[in-house]
Amino acid sequence: MHEPARAGGPAVDPAPAAPGSGPQTAAAPDLADELAELVEGAERPTGAWRVADYHAERGRGRALVATGARRLVDGGRAATRGASLGGKALTERLVRAAPRIPVRDLATLRAQHPGAADPEQLADLLVAGATRASGALGAGVGAMAMLPVPPAMPVEIAAEVLAVAAVEIKLLAELHQVYGMPAQGSTAQRGGAYLAAWANRRGIDSTLLIRPAGFAALALGSEVRRKVRRRLTRSWIRRMPSVAPLMLGAGIGATVNRRDTRRLAEQVRADLRSRTPADRGYWAEAGPTIGGRVVR
Fold first, then answer.
1. Which of 13, 72, 176, 257 is spaced 20 to 30 A from 165 at the CA atom?
2. Structure letter (DSSP) for residue 293
């Protein structure tokens, strides 16, 4: 996974494209960065939101989905041909995008949320941010569906599905940081590990945390691709009611996304809580610093 330089993480190596995956139009790093900003901007304590904030967030979600939809249309083809996008095509795009999703390390997360006294409080903030962001993406697409002439909805739904998946993968990766079990290996290997965990709706296979060489094969494994495709297809089906005529599309889209993201977070957190970090002092070591010294 891509880790910002400000986080003090390892150097980022280029994320290779999957063999035979075609043009890399849907995995541009700038879109991943914009999604990360949407998530991180939504990480506020409960009750700190105003109505204007929700409207602004929904507008950003709509803009991001529209940008993603344009990138799903290869070679300038008409957007109406987006109906040909299938589960396999979306899977390959997500496989390519996963290593490019910006992930903050624990030191960065603690510095950005100094009020979080323990892993649970910090995890609560991350889940709240991801849930709000996925809701904004769903509300944006649902609102488009209510227009007199909905703009190429199959493409919009595909872009939303990929964007929400990216938000959830980012959440899952940062929860691993919070609970002291981050993935190891190269950018591509970490991305593959978190993608597989997202498809399985649980934490990374614990054996890979002590034998990171296994990450290399995991990213390109056919079993992982099948599980990812199944998850994306199910997400597509669940989102179809949000674009049905004469329905409250924005509300339905937001509700479906928030519910799914929250459920994923609960499952992953339960799994990570049941494990013991290899370094029991990881939380204190990543604490805020004053004058170069860590505040315990």
1. 13
2. E
